[in-house]
Design a protein that fits this description.
homodimer; 426 residues; alpha+beta; BirA Bifunctional Protein, domain 2; Rossmann fold; eight-stranded mixed beta sheet; 16 helices; 41% helix
């Protein structure tokens, strides 16, 4: 028997899980303030659904875990939360669900791919999407939400913002041929990682002339105000410019100072059709993006394929990088109080229950360990307060609360629950 | 392409998911007050682990979803949270985890079995367990926690409590042969469902004489106080009696009036070694158990098999039946406020964001629908308050909050965020 974890999977033990719980609660609380509703979709999907025309192309299909049920149906484990989102809309729109549909989902996805640092085969995604709203107003609201969410998490961020049409307009204007566009986008996307020279080197290998690349990179240095003075007339540029200007009007009016116009931001995949953004840790404790988002007007439209259009925008929050930042900051005490009963089981449990009803996290020593042993374990677990409850304490009606951090004792009446709570929660 | 759900799976849409979120938050909050820590284990497991000696016997193995990864490792989807619990203890005890280890886990499990009403192939389990504590003190604490959890959920319950040794003592004392014991336990477990005659009929088919059955059923009528006056001397009975008496001393002292001694309660599986209990809806809106628990001192001990003993107690909360009771009671408003901007996008979004920071759930009409249409949709979604924000409102600095439930309007200064919150949250 293998008492071990499957390659690429792991368990979230309490120390980490407490941080993850806090992150998820903070995020969902924020999402709900902005009118996003919770959704929880099935992990098991028909393989045909996962292999349907959206998908991240055939690449991702290599990483789908496949299986069969007893009825010999071909199934797969979901590899993202976007396909389930599209499925739910398609199955329920006009009945259980009305457009615009704003939802969030936090759940596990599975990818049987190479296992690298920070990349697991079973991991959480956290997606917030809206289907059924065009234009930049909703994108501005999403950037507001992103700003508030990270503020509540206590992480200073900056947000790189761009528009895919604008980027394509720059590529076209540089004279790069249409069939090389995707390659250029994927390469430019690595700019922060491999630098201008790295990107240029990679693109030279596709036989793109140097002057074209120089022209492209000169565009990448423009500011939002420069856009009005650029002599570019292709329709991608014109449309992209209008969209990004409208968005930055909102950004300025809303004083979202963390947003930075970043004309080379591509955001990988080809799914995006307009605005894109990525979120970074201002302190650079993590250098990869903490999350990002963008508009994808075609995926769900093509996916459902019922003649209607389904313009959509979505954000992802990277639970793993966010937790890894906060795990280093937060000093989590798992319990507020340890009670050590000395032949006072009932009174101890009654006291614990009264405090629990008031919101105190109480653990009781139940293995009759010696006081010294129990105190050592309290220390190891960062438990800030301890009460040793013996018959003397009951007789005198007075207990002593040991403050483990300041090594002091506070005497208090055993029935004065309010006072005990006040001491423990201060 | 199949835009449909896999047989035996379903999506939790917002209306249901909101109730499930509330239930899970209430439960986890209670668990943490009692010193249980969160754990989140992997869904993918090595098949050998799932097939190891614990397991619910070979029956459950028929229902395991099996698959292979690209490295041809034989995997399975977890079918409960107990095996992962044992795995985590075995892998981490003495390092990341110290005994006693109190943890809760809420997560999906998978069983490829027959699909009946209320039985899905992908469903949630919610388990609260402690490993490393013997005796009835911890069981009494668990019953306290169960009582508080359902109180916070707003569900009146009663708890049937028994001891497996006591039940086995009764069976032995009735003269039923040892090899029939398991069959009798499984049959007696159906007593509430099929009645005394049903059980007797079933047991007669195993050639158990009527007088033995009559004797057994006469024991089932005893009260906790009767136990002291029964002339039974087998060691199962003696041990079981001591344990259940000790537990009921705690129950009485803690005034857990929802607990009822139920000498025929078996709680199905053969895993339990001492105390068992099941929780029922007092109002019988759901007749099957909402959850239950019990002591299982051997499973983890046998599973880890390292020479140490791992006495354990665990409770399950039935997320599905609990939610189905609460869905009928709760009238959930998904949003607190709808703002309809009339050429006031920025001011509307700023107002919304200020209210969101104060905890109000705000949704903004972003598709420029006619006011009438937007109000109709607010009505349909039970949104209690609406603000139509036009240029007049900005000029006069005054907005009108429409109370959709009482069909009244309240005028208020647009900058008086506190007052607006007060109106919406009252």
């Amino acid at each position: 028997m293998k008492l071990m974890n499957v390659k690429g999977t792991n368990d979230s033990l309490p120390n980490n899980e407490i941080v993850k719980r806090k992150v998820i609660n903070t995020l969902t609380d924020t999402f709900e303030k902005f009118g996003y509703l919770p959704l929880d979709t099935s992990i098991l999907c028909y393989y045909d659904l996962l292999a349907s025309k959206y998908s991240g192309g055939s690449e991702i299909l290599k990483e789908v875990y496949t299986l069969k049920d007893q009825g010999e149906r071909k199934l797969g484990l979901r590899y993202d939360l976007t396909i389930p989102f599209a499925k739910v809309i398609s199955m329920n729109a006009g009945r259980e669900i009305n457009l615009p549909f704003k939802r969030y989902e936090i759940g596990k996805v599975f990818r049987d791919g190479p296992v690298k640092t920070g990349r697991a085969r079973e991991f959480y995604q956290c997606d917030v999407d809206v289907c059924g709203i065009s234009g930049s107003y909703i994108e501005a609201e999403m950037l507001s939400m992103t700003s508030l969410a990270y503020k509540k998490l206590g992480i200073d961020i900056y947000i790189e913002v761009n528009n895919r049409k604008l980027l394509e307009g720059f590529i076209i204007e540089s004279g790069i041929s249409d069939e090389l566009k995707s390659k250029v986008i994927l390469s430019v996307d690595k700019l922060a990682k491999i630098g201008e020279n790295g990107v240029k080197e990679e693109l030279s290998s596709f036989n793109i002339e140097e002057e074209k690349l120089d022209k492209l990179f000169s565009y990448f240095k423009c500011t939002i105000n420069d856009l009005d003075n650029m002599n570019i007339t292709n329709e991608y540029f014109i449309e992209g410019r209008e969209e990004i200007k409208e968005l930055f009007n909102y950004i300025n009016d809303l004083n979202l100072i963390e947003c930075r116009f970043t004309p080379y931001l591509a955001r990988g995949l080809e799914i995006y059709t307009g605005t894109v953004w990525e979120v970074f840790d201002e302190k650079q404790r993590i250098t990869c993006a903490l999350g990002g988002g963008g508009r994808y007007d075609k995926i769900i439209t093509n996916f459902i394929d019922d003649g209607n259009t389904y313009p959509s925008v979505g954000i992802s929050f990277g639970i793993v990088p966010i937790c890894s930042i906060l795990e280093d900051i937060e000093n989590n005490s798992l319990y507020d109080l340890l009670i050590i009963p000395m032949n006072t089981n009932i009174v101890s449990l009654k006291l614990a229950n009264k405090l629990r009803e008031k919101g105190v996290k109480v653990i009781i020593e139940m293995n009759n360990r010696k006081i010294k042993k129990a105190l050592e374990s309290a220390d190891k677990n960062n438990i800030p307060y301890v009460i040793v409850l013996g018959e003397n304490e009951i007789d005198s009606n007075t207990i002593e609360i040991k403050d483990m951090i300041h090594s002091s004792n506070i005497k208090v009446n055993i029935d004065d629950i309010e006072e005990i709570c006040k001491i423990i929660k201060r």
